[in-house]
Amino acid sequence: MANKRPLIHPRDEIMNTMDRIYRYRMTTTSGGNLSIRDDAGDIWISPARIDKGNLTRNDIACVRTDGSVEGPHPPSSEFPFHKAIYQARPDIRAIVHAHPVALVAFSMCRQTPNTRLFHQAHSVCGRVGFAPYALPGSERLGESIAATFADGCDSVILENHGVVVGGEALSHAFERFEAFEFAGKTLIKASQLGEVRYLTDPQLDQAANRSVDYQSFEPPAATPVEQELRRQLCSFVRRGCRQRLLISTEGSFSARVDGDAFLITPTQRDRESLQVEDLVLVDGSRREAGKRASRAAAAHQAIYQRHPHVQAIVFAHPVNATAFSVTESPLDVRTIPESYVFLRDVGRVAYGIQYQTDGRIAEAISAHSPAAILENDGVLVTGGSVLDTFDRLEVLESTAEAVINANAIGKVSAMPDQVIEELRTAFNL
């Protein structure tokens, strides 16, 4: 959720968010712009014609309510549509405009991604809209986009241009932007596999209305084991975000501390910015005081209780593997030795089982099948350590991408049974 009392200066927030967007390859050196409207009505905005890969806080322009500009550079040439959106939607306090490849592809086809692929994308992106083409930087473009936002849209595709997303804070707008691009990328990949499956209203409600109910407790001082696991989880969650295996609003990662106790990522927190103190300790029916565990905590707990060999779990949404989750196309990992050795046979879990409290999700994995595809909800991967689990997640996504790419070349050739038996014998599988 957005911070109701911002403590970070708009210059720094714009600089840091643009760095993240550029680092994720979701815009180009010259493309895109970000803005924040502060309580005084002044608009802070990224400048025109400045390298997005080397943006500094001093580069950010401020357009005062009287029209005067503060800063060494002129504001973005797209300032007119930022101003128009703010005038049309008083609830919007920040805007992200960029040219991420998947959403640009939709803009070229005059389409908008259907966010009913995933409950989180549908919830985060808000109402989706489409604005007709107008000259970049023109007043007419501002009028076209503002009219779409005034109609109640929050994430808007610009015809033959890109995307504009608004939010109640820049962090909120970024989350929408990232989730929207994620949905677009997944749809493009999934369309190469087969018919795409979308969620119904009851299915969306099932995910939205789930919750976890743990009693609050004050845990004792953290042991070195817990401290090390906190460090590892934060490190790999951050790496997962930067490698696009996780996104800021999706997924959960946990590690067993001992017995029934495990650490898990919190709910409604940006995954990449997590610190060791943000992770939540869950022990039986209790959770660490003052923190909110991921809503997937009950599913993690059920797996730990049923499978003593599992020491870490991740629910994630890497694009290529997730593309398999929204179609009926099976992901065959009998394609290269590494894939089979690490993953064995990857199962498929019917939609919604991971949201139930009956523990059935634990049946989806075993020592001989450590990963599964979750229908319309990404993947589940388990392992004997945080590193082992993350490694398997990487292999799963790499395999899924290779299979999708191979389908564009010709018929995929899986390894025959005798090769599989040879691998089982050689690696004691």
TrEMBL record:
Any single Gene Ontology cellular-component annotation: cytosol
Q: What is this protein called?
A: L-fuculose phosphate aldolase
Xref: InterPro entries: Aldolase_class_II_sugar_metab, Aldolase_II/adducin_N, Aldolase_II/adducin_N_sf
Gene Ontology MF, one: metal ion binding
Tell me the ranges covered by the Class II aldolase/adducin N-terminal domain, including all copies.
12-188, 231-404
Instruction: Give one Pfam hit by family name.
Output: Aldolase_II
Q: Which organism is it from?
A: Rosistilla carotiformis
The alphabetized UniProt keywords are: Lyase, Metal-binding
User: Which Enzyme Commission number(s) are on file for it?
Assistant: 4.1.2.17
SUPFAM superfamilies given in the database record: AraD/HMP-PK domain-like (SSF53639)
Keyword check for tRNA processing = no
**Gene Ontology biological process terms from the UniProt entry:** pentose catabolic process
